[in-house]
Design goal:
single chain; four-stranded mixed β-sheet; four-stranded antiparallel β-sheet; 14 helices; 14% strand; globular; binds flavin-adenine dinucleotide
């Protein structure tokens, strides 16, 4: 029997260490330098974060999910999931532990499709935590439907020339390089006519026109770039994977990215539930504590049940990825998790705000950012609706149309079949009457 919901005691000890470390050492960074996790650290920041990263390495928890050949411990996705539940509370924690989005996904595709030279130049510093990277795929006129992309890459001798617009390219302004998806052959289908390119951000022609921020962020804080690729020349060996392979590369990247977001979302939602419970136990209203009111008890029970369902599904899916070592085989469950993730975070964040009253919506508590986070989770790496379509298609693959006019569950038809099956016995019974 293989069902086991217990964590190996040695790894649990590591998780306990990580839990305390994140609370005591890392969460203060979110308060000192909010929104700065993806900026190259200045001297002061470096003085604080370098020793913290060193401590994580000493604990063997740096980029823990990667194989030893990539500087990790090969712990896999299930163990990463348990760790990410802790890291999800803090925007700085994934950086300190070497497993932040979008860099983990980007590292995975360079590891998978990159040449030795590309790994040396891009992957090594990325895994060392020395640089950040950017995934530049969405365009202003089309995000969820990549067949609408028009950014072009044209071969010119032994170079490629890239022209076009990209939108919401996260962290482009602080990234050392961009992974750009472009149409390399417009005469074939989008699924075979697009390629990925590794483009250093300082390449002439890479023009960041503006950096969009999320709701509540100032223009200066924006991290999501509108980029004009204006005659950007890269050598032939900037191609990542084969020519026309962009879709395959994208799937590898996005599979990992999506489940990593889900793992961290568990941590964030748990933080909301903890805050809700603390407030419910602390606040007096109408002759009793909030925790004595049934509406509030309902919020707590619903949040706990929702979070537990989500958590178990994420852990199961992480386990499946480790088992199959292939994101495509787990596509249905990754898409299903992506679908439920925004609702879990939204519902728990909303209840947390509600229980805190005015304080909950104020900028003195972090809850409205969780609400924005829920909307982000319903869009980034593909909108909910598109993932629902994926889930439905995958589920339908395991089903057949009914063989005749009536559904296979049609009771009169089944009753007739049951009678036919036991006809001999039934006739005998009738004969005995
Ligand atoms: C915080 C954040 C970070 C991001 N980072 C990056 C990044 O680093 N790199 C990058 O390339 N992109 C990034 N994105 C962009 C993201 O991938 C897109 O927002 C997403 O793919 C949706 O594209 P869109 O915004 O153009 O929406 P659209 O494609 O215009 O879709 C809008 C809405 O239409 C509906 N819809 C779309 N398709 C269907 C359908 N088939 N059936 C039914 N309804 C549908 C959905 O409700 C959808 O939300 C990021 C987005 C966010 C919010």
């Amino acid at each position: 029997m293989g069902w086991d919901f217990e964590t190996d005691p040695a790894y649990q000890a590591k998780l306990d260490w990580a839990d305390e470390f994140v609370r005591e050492e890392v969460e203060p960074l979110d308060l000192l330098w909010p929104g700065k996790a993806f900026w190259p650290p200045d001297e002061t920041v470096r003085k604080v974060i370098n020793p913290l990263k060193e401590e994580v390495r000493r604990q063997d928890l740096w980029a823990t999910h990667l194989g030893p050949e990539l500087g990790g411990k090969g712990h896999g996705q299930l163990q990463l999931s348990l760790l990410n539940e802790i890291l999800g509370r803090s925007s700085w924690a994934p950086i300190i532990f070497g497993c932040q989005a979008p860099d983990t996904g980007n590292a995975e595709i360079i590891a998978h499709y990159g040449t030795e030279a590309q790994k040396e130049r891009y992957l090594k510093p990325l895994l060392e935590g020395e640089v950040f990277s950017c995934y530049s795929m969405t365009e202003p006129q089309g995000g969820s439907d990549p067949t609408l992309f028009t950014t072009r890459a044209v071969k010119d001798g032994d170079e490629w020339v890239i022209n076009g617009w990209k939108y919401f390219s996260s962290n482009a302004r602080t990234a050392a390089f961009l992974i750009v998806m472009a149409v390399s052959d417009p005469d074939t289908s989008a699924y075979k006519g697009m390629s990925m390119f590794l483009v250093p951000t300082d390449t002439p022609g890479v023009k960041i026109v503006r950096n969009s921020g999320l709701a509540g962020e100032s223009e200066e804080e924006g991290m999501h770039a509108l980029i004009h690729y204006d005659d950007v020349r890269v050598p032939a060996d900037a191609l990542l994977g084969g020519e026309g392979q962009a879709f395959a590369v994208a799937q590898t990247r996005l599979g990992g990215g999506r489940i990593h977001h889900a793992m961290r979302t568990i941590g964030l939602a748990k933080m909301g539930l903890d805050a809700m419970c603390e407030r419910a136990l602390s606040r007096e209203v109408s002759g009793g504590r909030l925790s004595d009111k049934q509406f509030v008890q309902g919020y707590i029970a619903d949040s706990y049940a929702q979070l537990m369902q989500f958590r178990l599904y994420v852990l199961y899916t992480a386990w499946s990825i480790d088992k199959h070592n292939d994101y495509l085989k787990v596509r249905k469950d990754i898409a299903a998790i992506k679908v439920i993730m925004p609702d879990v975070l939204h519902d728990i964040a909303w209840r947390t705000i509600q229980v805190h009253g005015a304080l909950g919506v104020s900028n003195e508590m972090p809850f409205t950012q969780m609400m924005t986070g829920a909307s982000v989770m319903g869009l980034a790496d593909g909108p909910t609706e598109v993932h629902k379509v994926t889930v439905a298609k995958q589920v339908l693959r395991d089903h057949e149309p009914s063989p005749g006019l009536w559904p296979t569950m049609h009771l009169p038809t089944r009753r007739e079949a049951a009678r036919a099956k036991y006809a001999a016995v039934l006739e005998h019974e009738v004969g005995n009457l």
